[in-house]
Amino acid sequence: MHQIKYALFYDFHTSPNHPGVGSKFDAEALTERFLQCGVDYVTFHARCNMGMAYYNTKLGIKHPSLEKDLFGELAFACQRKNIALGAYFNGGLSRMEALLHPDWARISPEGKIYQEPLDSPFSMTMCYNSPYREHLKAMTLELAELYPLKGFFFDCMGPFPCVCPHCVPLMQKEGLEPGKLQDVISFAAASASKLADELACGLRKVNPDYLFYFNDIEFENQKKAGNYLEFECLPSKSGGYLYMQAVPRYMRTLGKPCVHMTGRFHSWSDFGGLRNLESLKYELLFAMVNGLRPNIGDHLLPEGSINEAVFSRIEEVYSYLRQYDRFLEGSQPQTEVALINPNGKPRLGNTAEMLGAMRMLSELSLQFDIVSKEASWDKYKLLLLPDNIEFDQEIAQRVAKHLTEGKCIIASGTSGLDEKRIFPEAWPVRFMSAAKFDPAYFQSQIPGLIEDMPFSFYEKAYEVKAKPGAEVYAQLLRPAINFGWNGIIPEYYNPPYEKTNLPFLAISRQVAYFSGRVFAGYHKKAPYQLSRIVEYALKRMLPKPSLKILQAPSYLQGLVSSRANQTQVHLFACIPEKRGSESESIEAELPVSGLQVALHTGGRRPETVFLALGKEPLHSWLEDEYLYIKVPDFSGFAMIVVDFPDLPCQGSIAT
Ligand SMILES: [Zn+2]
Questions:
Q1: How many angstroms separate the alpha carbon of residue 134 from the centre of ligand 1?
Q2: What is the phi-psi region of residue 154: left when phi exceeds 0, alpha when psi lies from -120 to 50, beta otherwise?
C-alpha cells in the first residue's frame, strides 16, 4: 500500500457543455511539475459529479469535447515518474448518467427527483440501490484493468434519503418504514456503506494494495471498506479553524493512516482563488505534527493548462514543510488527556460542549485526543466528560477500569448518569434534577482564583448534593425571578439574588465535577472565569502535565510529540482572523519573545536541546521532574527538539 507523504487532489467537475476539454493537457509537463513540488500521490477524476468520464470508457459517458484519453495519459506519465495515482469517482452524484437513466436518480421523501437549490450539483443525486450501483462498480473495475493505479477516492457518499421503487421494498424487507424520515436516512447510510464495501471488495481482487477512502461516509462506518482517512477541510467552508484543529485529534485514534486535505482556494469551484502562504503553511504543519500527511486541493482548468502561480504556491508550501520531515518521521503525538466523544465525528462539528472543551484544552496547551468507543482509553491519565456524556454499560465499564487504576476524571452536567439517573460511586455528588432556576450563577470559594462575585456561565445548571467527604469549591446562586414571559412582564432581567447550598464545583479523590454545562458555556462566550476554574480542576486532577508554558502570549499553542529517545515541542503563534463573512485565514506569523517551556522528563536526563532548524544548543535546566527551556525569540512556529539517551536522571544539569 502506498504511504502518502505529499499529495495533490484535483477537482475536475466539468459541464458537458464546456468546449475544448483537455485541448492543452500535457501529461508530461504536468507530472514534471508534480515532481518539482515533491508530490508523491495525486488524486484525479476518472468520472466527475456531472457524470463525465475523462478516460476511454466503454461503460460511461466520455466528455463530448475531450478528444484524448486524458486520465490514461496522466496515469502512464505518473507511472513513468514513480508518482502514485488515485482515481476519483463521485459516488453520490452523476448528473448526465442520471438524466440518461432517470430511474438511477434518488427520489426524496417528498417525492421529488430535483432538490433546491437547482443550481447546485447536489440538486440531483443517485440512488445507491438502483442499477447505478452495478454500473459504478463496473466502471471502477474497467478503470482498474486499464491503468496503473494506487488508490480510489469515492466522493459525496452521504446518506441521501431515497424512497424510489428500488429502495422501498428493501426497506420494508428490513422492517423499516418508508414514511419515517429517520428510517429512510438510516437505510440510506447503510446502503452507502454497503456500496463502499462492495466497491472495495471488487477492486481488491484486482489489486489488494489499493488505497480506499469514501468521503461523507463516517470514518467509523468505513472500517472495513476504507484503509486510510482523509479530512477534507477548507477553513472557510468546513467550520473554521476550531473544527480544523478538532478532527485530527479524533481521526488519529482510529488506527489508519490519515491525510489532511485543504485547498488552494476558499471553496470548491473557486477557480480564481489562491489562499495565502501563511494559512496553508499553518494548516498543513498543524496537520503534520498531529500525525496527518498534507494534501492540497486544486482545480485543473478544463483545457488542462498548467497554472504556474498555483504551482509556485504549492511548491513553496511543500518546501517549507519538508524541512521538518526528518524530525516528524516516526513521531507520534504524546497525549495524556482523553476528551470523550462516544459517537465519533458527527458530534464534533455540531455540539457546543465538544468544541468548548476542545478550545479550552488547546488554550491551556494540554496534550489530548478526542476519543470515541472505537479507540482504547487505557493510556490516558485523565478522562474529560463534557456536559452530557451519559453512561451505557460499556462507558461505565471503561470509566470504572480507569478509576481502578487510580486515574482521574473531570465531568460536568449530566456526564456520568446511568439509565436510572444515578452517578457512579466515585463522583463527589449525587444527582437530583435539572435546576429549577434560570439563569444560574456561580461564586468561587478558591482564594485569589477569580474575583469574589457571582459569575455567569451562560448555560444550564443541575441540582446535585455533595457526598460526605467531597470538597466544595464553588456554589450556585439563583435569581429571584426566572427568565421568561409571565403573561404580562418579560422577565428578562434576572440578577443573582441568593446563594444556594448547591455545589457548582465539587472534588473527590479522583473526580472533579461541575454542576453546569461549563463547556457549552465556554463555546458561547469563552469567559475567563470558566477557563480559570476549569484550569484549577485540571491542575488538581493532572498536577504534572507533560508540557507547561510560562509567560505565553494568549495566541500561543503548544503540542508535544515523541519518537524513540526524542521529544519535540511544537509552538504555533498565529491567530485565525475572520476577515470575510465567508472566510477565515491566518494573515501573520506572530512574534514571541521571552518564552520558557517546561517539559516533564519522566525521570530521564536530556542529552541535547535545540531548535529543529538551528544548530546552537538551547539554555535549559532540570528542576522538579521538569526540563525548563528558554525559547529563543521566533515568529509563527518553532520546534524544540530534546534528545534523551534513555538513562535515568542523575540530578540537576544546566546547559
Ligand atoms: Zn432509491
A1: 14
A2: beta
Q: Write down the ipTM of this complex.
A: 1.00
3-state secondary structure 279-307: HHHHHHHHHHHCCEEEEEEEECCCCCCCC
Q: Is 547-643 a CATH 2.40.170.20 domain?
A: no
Residue 653 pLDDT class (50, 70, 90 cuts): very low
Domains 7-101+131-161+211-322 and 338-541 agree in fold: no
Distance from the alpha carbon of residue 220 to the mean position of ligand 1, in angstroms: 24
pLDDT in tens, 276-292: 999 999 999 999 999 99
Q: What is the DSSP letter of 122?
A: G
CA of 97 to the centre of ligand 1 (A): 15
The whole-angstrom separation of Cα 111 and Cα 129 is 17
CATH superfamily of 338-541: Class I glutamine amidotransferase (GATase) domain (3.40.50.880)
Residue 362 predicted with pLDDT over 60: yes
Q: What cell does 527 get?
A: 469567559
pLDDT band, very low/low/confident/very high, at 345 (cuts 50, 70, 90): low
- For the chain, domain boundaries: 7-101+131-161+211-322, 338-541, 547-643
Q: What is the pLDDT of residues 151-188, one digit of tens each?
A: 999 999 999 999 999 999 999 999 999 999 999 999 99
Residues by chain with Cβ below 5 Å of ion ligand 1: 127, 129, 162, 164, 166-167
* Mean pLDDT (whole number) for 236-249: 87
- pLDDT tens digits along 135-146: 999 999 999 999
Integer Cα distance of 619 and 448 in angstroms: 33
CATH placement of domain 7-101+131-161+211-322? 3.20.20.80
Calpha distance 155→634 (Å, rounded): 40
Centroid of ligand 1 to alpha carbon of 95 (angstroms): 16
Cα 175 to ligand 1 centre (Å): 16
Quote the longest CA-to-CA distance of the chain. Answer: 81
